[in-house]
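Now for our target.
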Amino acid sequence: MSENPQVKAILEHIGTRERELADQAEQFRARIEELTRQLGEIDAESENLRITQDPPPPPAALTRHRPGPPRHPGPPRLPADPDRPGRRGPADARPRLCQALDLPILPKNTEGIRSKLKRLVSRGILIEPEPGLFARPDA
């Protein structure tokens, strides 16, 4: 080490400051641990209060429920076709289905829709009067 008194003073100051910072960091770590413990206790108490405020579900015997098969919401409705106002019958539903499903009108999406429509035709849910045009059997 250097015998220069100025260098010694600087090194002593650096060492002292380093010890002060280490002590301060340890105090912060202890405080963080204490706050984490307190937060866990508050969360647990809050959860217990929330659970006690929630009413229990009613017993199955007291609920008014009609026996029978569950009701199906039905098929999704397509948006109106602005190019065919008030007209019924076969239509190229692929772009409208893409829009209804929030899919970009891209070839890969319309081909996927087309294959699904073809599957519905094979099951008798839709008819295809002309290639690429689909309609309900009652339309």
The helical segments are 5-53, 94-100, 107-122.
